[in-house]
Amino acid sequence: MKKLTAREPARGHRRPRHRTFASLVAEGSEIFATLVPPDAYTPAIELFAQGSAAQEVYCIGRGLVKLVSIDPAGRQFIVGLRSPGWILGAASVIVQRPHLLTATTITSCHLHRISAEAFLDLAKGNAQFSWYLQQILGREVYDQVTGLVRLGSSSARQRLEQLLLQFISSMETSKSEKGISLELPLRHWEIAQLIAVTPEHLSRLLRRIEQEGVIQREPRRIVITDLQKFRLLSDFQELGINLGKEQEQT
Question: Taking the alpha carbons of 230, 184, 241, 216 in that order, is the dihedral positive or negative?
Fold first, then answer.
């Protein structure tokens, strides 16, 4: 068998720069828009169920989808959230195995839906689509490992801030003199489960952050009042979030 060797980069050749997820999302949206128009979904629509056959693949154009695992006793555990740019169901279609999780919309969503057969044809025969797919699946694996690392290396507050950041980047928010107003798409216990704390600890955490003047709590809503104190502010650029000049200077 011929031994494969790594090709040395040419002199003066620069390694490719880190690509932001925002640019990857833009490319995915463009690709899927040429394939099939998006369908509108209301919240609480089940896209596929745990254990069901993988017959379709979805690309999220707008909104949030939660991925849930259900144990034999019927208890639900939120495994993660998927926001614009992510593909749902691709892994199960590629390996031709049943879905391991249930996917349900938690906000109003625009989703591009294609059949498993059409998806596999594209993955095999379209170089641009295949490379995009490799990047998005690689990003998913990378983010999963990052999430595991955060559980052991980051505080509950940091994980909560990261989750709020994901909400802001994926949902419609309103801006006012108070700050960024965000309607929470999940129940209190679901948010606690996602950041691996008890509901009681989440309540204490939110109360502490509110006392610091970073947020204001309203029924089913949070207003982020001080972005400079929001510890993950630097990640807004990675996600392509435009905060506006006034808020960046406050």
Answer: negative
